[in-house]
Design a protein that fits this description.
Layout: H1 6-29, H2 47-54, H3 58-89, H4 95-103, H5 110-124, H6 130-155, H7 159-166, H8 171-182, H9 184-200, H10 205-208, H11 216-226, H12 231-253, H13 256-261
């Protein structure tokens, strides 16, 4: 078995430290008792976390982001699973075009998508609608689900499906009893990535939100343009904790290596 040498381990450690250092600093600043962005040196305080829940705008924005990300991730799964199944299992005219259509939001800048959605919603009179905000998020997060679900279809063994069909099981029964459980890690990982990307989306959301549907990232951006205090660090620390908690739950339930890397 090949092992990394000390130079490779040192390089990997430096890369991990470089990636984690900003997150650690933000989390430390969130516990400062001061009124400025500073790392606490004498004592820690929860005053800025308490200030978040007392702020009249942050809590509603959090619930907007939570519902938005949940709906967008769920709808994207409902769209991506049958699309991935059709693209992987069948040959039909426009198959490659359909695949490219579902994956195209990955290569289009979110700034361009935001301007396009703003113009479209203004033309059809849907500006400020939460339903159309959900639709715009579905478009940008569906590719993440598609890629993982298609990878699950590509790597699965179809012998169990074929055996069930020879025994008289219908296509729906085979999918519900055999196929869906086998690709469940891919579906779960896709839903998780879609949820995280939708919850953290800022660039596109700025153009399509209204005062009633402001999401948490947009609210943080608006607050940061008006004042800079440790409350932003506290909100960021909560978002980091939420993401880390979700990843931990998925890791305990299915294993991140199996979902994201494809290891057995």
């Amino acid at each position: 078995m090949h092992r990394n040498g000390p130079v490779a381990l040192l390089f990997h450690g430096l890369v991990v430290a470089f990636v984690l250092a900003p997150l650690v600093v933000v989390c430390l600043v969130a516990f400062t008792p001061e009124n400025t962005l500073s790392i606490p040196t004498t004592n820690f305080s929860l005053r800025w976390f308490e200030a978040i829940f007392k702020h009249p705008d942050f809590v509603p924005s959090f619930y907007n982001s939570l519902w938005l990300a949940t709906l967008a991730a769920t709808i994207s799964v409902l769209l991506a699973v049958p699309a991935a199944l059709a693209i992987d299992r069948y040959q039909f005219p426009g198959r490659d075009a359909l695949n490219g259509l579902f994956l195209s939001p990955l290569i289009i800048p979110h700034l361009v998508l935001g301007v396009a959605f703003l113009r479209l919603f203004a033309l059809i009179g849907a500006t400020g609608s939460f339903a159309w905000l959900v639709l715009s998020h579905v478009i940008i997060v569906t590719p993440y689900v598609m890629r993982l679900v298609m990878a699950s279809f590509t790597g699965m063994d179809r012998s169990a499906e074929q055996a069930a069909m020879t025994l008289g099981a219908s296509h729906m029964t085979v999918f519900r009893r055999i196929t869906a459980p086998m690709i469940l890690p891919g579906i779960t990982g896709g839903w998780l990535l879609a949820f995280i990307n939708s919850f953290d989306e800022l660039t596109m959301s700025i153009f399509v939100t209204s005062p009633q549907t402001v999401t948490l990232p947009v609210r943080m951006y608006m607050y940061a343009t008006e004042s800079i205090d440790p409350m932003m660090a506290a909100v960021s620390a909560l978002m980091i904790a939420l993401t880390a908690g979700a990843m931990l739950v998925i890791d305990r339930a299915f294993g991140l290596d199996k979902i994201l890397v494809g290891e057995k």
